[in-house]
Amino acid sequence: MVVWTEFERTTIQDIFSKMNYDIVGQQALARCLIVYPWTQRYFGNFGNMYNAAAIMGNPMVAAHGKVVLHGLDKAVKNMDNIKAAYAELSVLHSEKLHVDPDNFRLLGDCLTIVVAAQLGAAFTPEVQAAFQKFLAVVFSSLRRQYH
Amino acid sequence: MSLTAKDKDVVKAFWGKISSKADAIGQEALGRMLTVYPQTKIYFAHWPDCSLGSAQVKKHGKTVMGAITDAVGKMDDLIGGLSSLSDLHATTLQVDPENFKILSHNILVTLAVHFPADFTAEVHVAVDKFLAALSAALADKYR
User: Which Pfam families match (chain B) (predicted)?
Assistant: First the structure.
């Protein structure tokens, strides 16, 4: 059972309530595809991803980034039972999408950096710790149904 | 994942922009690492205070970032250039090389916080590759 402090709960709710999902989703996914180009393997039908500019301007990347970020909503709203909330998504990522779970960490790192750039000095070490703990729980739950 | 000529140019250009704040970046990256990854504190058990504002973190952050800035000028031969630092980390400090990735991540976060416009995805990938190559060079003498 994950134990959240008051600070951690408030921090996570705060970050996500103020977040522009369209922008952050697109930025995080695009950055992941640029910084870790092997992640492009999962998006063969996304069209032009030949360079950073193409990826940044790609509308399918933007649309999918939004989908992924809204997927995190489930965890934000069910912080006390992320494991259960993500059971189906975990099966999806394993059985249907065949995503190497290491990629969750890569996307998570890019998301952390995008959020850090947005929040600036407000992204203190303590806020970073809460955010990264939240992502770690999400990724562990997403990995749970892999076999 | 070796550094291309373009990677080196991008890293040098970006470092030119951040060099005046290098000490503060080093301090903050180290402070973030010690807070977000508390297991890294084991290497600093002799410090009275591992928080971001402590004198030890400030001084050591400056030392570490100074060495990294130095390495920007040695990108054509990181293994050779970092040989004695690798000896130090391998035999005296015995830092588990996994921690180099952790510190690198916190350097990237700090850069994003302070240079949101300049730390584009293209700069991010070049700096990430540089830090990875630096980490490999630092681990070169381990065994």
Answer: Globin
CB count, 10 Å around CB of A50? 8
Report d(CA B61, CA A43) in Å as an integer.
40
Neighboring chain B residues of A120 at a CB cutoff of 8 Å? 113-114, 116
The domain covering B5-139 belongs, at the CATH homologous superfamily level, to Globins (1.10.490.10)
Say yes or no for a CB contact (<8 Å) between B122 and A52. yes
B114, B124, B128, B129, best to mutate vs chain A, most A CBs in 10 Å:
B124
The amino acid sitting at A90 is S
ipTM associated with this complex: 0.91
Q: Give me the CATH number covering residue A35.
A: 1.10.490.10
How does pLDDT run across A7-45, given as a tens digit for each residue?
999 999 999 999 999 999 999 999 999 999 999 999 999
Helix (H) or strand (E) segment spanning residue B46? none
- Structural domain range at position A103: 6-143
Would an 8 Å CB–CB cutoff place A122 in contact with chain B? no
A119 Cβ under 8 Å from any chain B Cβ: yes
How many domains does the structure of chain A reveal?
A: 1
* Domain ranges within chain B, ordered by starting residue: 5-139
Q: At what angle do helices A59-77 and A21-35 cross, to 10 degrees?
A: 110
